[in-house]
Amino acid sequence: MCRTKLEKAAVYSFVNDAYLGIGGKTFGTIVGEAAELRAFKGDLDQLFCVAENGNGKYKLENMSSGLYLSVSGDAPVLTTESDADAQDWEVYEDGGRHALCCNGKWLACEELDGCLKLALTTEQSGAMHCAIKKQAEASAEFPRIIRLEGDYVGGSSCPEIVKHDGVYYNFNQSGGIVMKRSDDLRSWTNVGFVFDTKPEWIKNELGNDSIWAPGCYKVGDTWRVYYASSSRGSQNSVIGMAYADTPAGPFTDGGMVIRSFTGYPYNCIDPCIFTDDDGQTYFIWGSYWTGIYMRRLDSKTGMLLEGSDEQWHLAKGYRQMEAPYLIKKDGYYYLFVAMGNLSKNESYHWTVGRSESLFGPYVDKDGKPMLENNTSRLTEYKPGVQGLAHAHPFLDDDGQWYLVGECWKDRTDPNRRVQLHVSTLVWNDAGWPVTALSSNLLEELGGKA
Questions:
Q1: Domains of the chain and any CATH numbers
Q2: How many CB atoms lie within 10 A of CB 66?
Q3: What is the largest distance, in Å, between two alpha-carbon atoms of the chain?
Q4: Alpha-carbon distance 40 to 185, whole Å?
Q5: 122-155 residue pLDDT tens
Q6: CB neighbours (10 Å) of residue 115?
Q7: 277-297 per-position pLDDT tens digit
Q8: Model pTM?
Q9: CA–CA separation, 402 vs 433, rounded Å?
Q10: What is the C-alpha to C-alpha distance for residues 140 and 291, in angstroms, rounded to an integer?
Q11: Nearby residues of 399 by Cβ (< 8 Å), 6 or more positions away
């Protein structure tokens, strides 16, 4: 055997003879979890950035989480965020294949319960042989999952994040509108509810006072939280609005913004507010039925603009579309929507289309109209990050885009506790967003999918 030279800061994959790639059990987001072998798909957690120590040894940083491939006892694990604490690996070539060694222990493969598992051996002859392939240059930008701490599990459905005076605020639904705060986007603390007592008018309109899908927006000097209420599976729905001087509150309810009844073309849930470059503010909403709609909003009152009956139909999902979110970037308007079964099973995913005009037509990557049920997929089920769809893009002060959404670690868990998900969002050369949960990550980063 002879040592293999890897390129510093380049991104590599390590795949064995059975075409199983090294990755994390839960997409690499838990410190100290076992490293795994899975069918290689070029997923983010199956890619490793190389750092050289100058002694022919390398640190291997998992691209999903920033954790390093290490050894703990008799198991290969993903652990430590510190480059200084990461363990060194030697890479050796043997007949065109490669083997990895850390402190005298060789990365190996063993069969357990009919499955091939990563293991360690002190015998060089027992080392697993891999194909090592450089998948990206050192300059390539990849999305990355933020490993969250604190109160991010539980009340995290339909999440929205905003920033005010250096503090991040997360609004989500859990019986009411729950607020969390964070100083770093990572560690979250529950801080209470927008409403101590839900507005009475909701129950008077609907017969129940459920609150769904909050969205927080700053228009002028006022912070507004828009929220929906409905009878599940019906068009008997309303959207209301509350306002405050800061996203920390206290909030005053402003009443009903819009309502729908059975037989309407739309359903009044999932509100989104968008302000264009000319200062005009728009109200976007919709779920199932005939999809997503938009009207003008009065930025002073937060209500629909009086005297204007203009209404634009932006996207139609044949009863499989919800949670619109609209942004503008580099001359394009991007409309993000959740697609799939509302029960949030394996069909549930996040998608996008775009237009050169705010009023449409919005199209997918192939130029097919969103008004005909066409969108471009951005997420799929991944180990430990399941059912991510009701989401929105968030732009931080430093110009970094983030994907903010809800997901489950394990949908088979009987508790089925939803949790907040935050990951970076990158944009390929074709101007399309790429997420850490992409179906074809490497192709999408290259603008080929």
A1: 2-136 (2.80.10.50), 149-445 (2.115.10.20)
A2: 19
A3: 80
A4: 31
A5: 999 999 999 999 999 999 999 999 999 999 988 7
A6: 11
A7: 999 999 999 988 899 999 999
A8: 0.94
A9: 10
A10: 36
A11: none
